[in-house]
Amino acid sequence: MSLEKKVLYIDFKKKYIKNTNLAVGMYQRESCVDVSSISVSEELVVDFDTHFSNWVKHQDKEIQSKLFASKNQFYTSVAEPLFKWLSAIELAIEKFEPDFIDFGEIYFHQLIFTYEAEGEVNRKFFYKSNYYLPVILLNYFKSKNIKAVVTFTKKSSFMPFLSFYIRNLSLLGYGFFKGVVRKLYRSSGTNKFGLDLPDKNKIGLLVRNKIQVQFAQKISTLRPESFEFLSYEQIGSRSSCSNNLREQELMHVNLNNQLSMYDLASEYIKGLLSLFRPNGVKDNTHISVMNGSLKFPMYYGAKEIIVRAVDMELLYKSLSLCRGMKMVSFDMLTPHAHYVKKALGERNITQIQTTLMLGKPEPDFVVGKNFLLTDKISYEGVSTFNQRFSSKLRYLETPKHLNVSKKIEFNDKVHRIVYFTQPMEQDVEKSLLNSLQNICESKGIALIIKVHPRQSSECYMSFNKAIITSECIDLKDFDLAITRWSSIAIDCWLARLPIVFIRSTGYSRIIEADFLPKGYTGDLRSINALEEHILNRYTSFVKDYIRFLKEIEKPIDKTYAFELIEKSF
Prior knowledge:
globular, alpha/beta, eight-stranded parallel sheet, 16% strand, 17 helices, Rossmann fold
């Protein structure tokens, strides 16, 4: 009789499952299942889409629109990770037939922490996914009567509850403070490049951050006299969108000017009250999927959605002067586009993609009649995995090619490197940057760290041998770009700047870089390969890169692009 006992250890923090042999106390496999590599089926996404919508219909009418608008973001931040974990654990059980399953630390409560509101990326210490994912999965597997013995360590729910309320109170407090400060600043400042009223005969370009401003600029060059910029400051943003438009000397309507102090105070007070007594949300309410075997407790999840809807309700109010105007929204999976539709009507909104969208099933994210995707990779991937609403998807290839400063001449060796940061897996990134900084210093290469718009430059000040910037840069001024898996690659390809990916983790290899063509010459597995394969053979790498570019470079047809936007309403 064998004394060996097989145990599945589920690590919710590191996102993998390990198969452990208790008799020898060693891991039988380095990694049993990498959760990030799991795909979610379209059938399961549709199941969630249907039951979420049905759940919304059973809530009070006054909050239905707020809940429905957050469906896609709730799926991305809560449901999709949960489905991945569930599938990974089932796969591991089938593969290893364990005697025990160790769920680690379990907090028994009904909390759900929803999506990161924009501006919260650097404040993720307010919660951890292992605060709520394990208990939902534990309840699911208990209902399945699996043969393995389930073990866990019960933890006090004090910290999750404390984090929940601090997280939401700080968001409301910070948002209200910033709103009041900006209101006072605007009332005392100049209105240079500002318009008081929108021209309803033009197509509005609604922008809320730097990325959207940059993309809207490209759109406006199709026919400048036919577009008008409208800015709205997103909650918790570090920089002013309106200031960014002024710096670009772009005339625009600042929608925040339409909001009074009363508007700000009333909406934030409503948000505060909903955090403690959310009218319209029923106790013990939940969403059931997979024939009722998997349940999302929604009482606290609904609270978070309603708190975060404060920003969108203010956007809705600010659009009161734009009724009857056609509007382009650059919000793809966030709730904002739903509030534009609520203010202007379904026929007066179209969405345009700005950043890469991965080819995977999604709940229905098309708010208006059409959704315009602006790169072939996203269009083919999204269309393939979302057949049920593919008739609403259109391919608008021109925008990303417009106003691009292209690199014409290439040096014989690398003199300047730009590294593009990302707000995920920070420990991995900082380790990579330490090595990259040392390599650049030893070779006399200038290193510029371009900070992601949703990150703070302060996070990278320890890299004192590099130049840290969050400002716009001209890609043609560099010899090489480096990132982990960012879709900034598409912009680099268009600018003809050679770019290298250093994808050292399963998460970066399998999930976020699906847009990379197979065999791409600059796709590395570690920083150690950079010197040997790129820096020491830069001329050869550039030749391979130019051959790759010839396959993706396209002519520009401005007339066709503008007509497609016009017809999308």
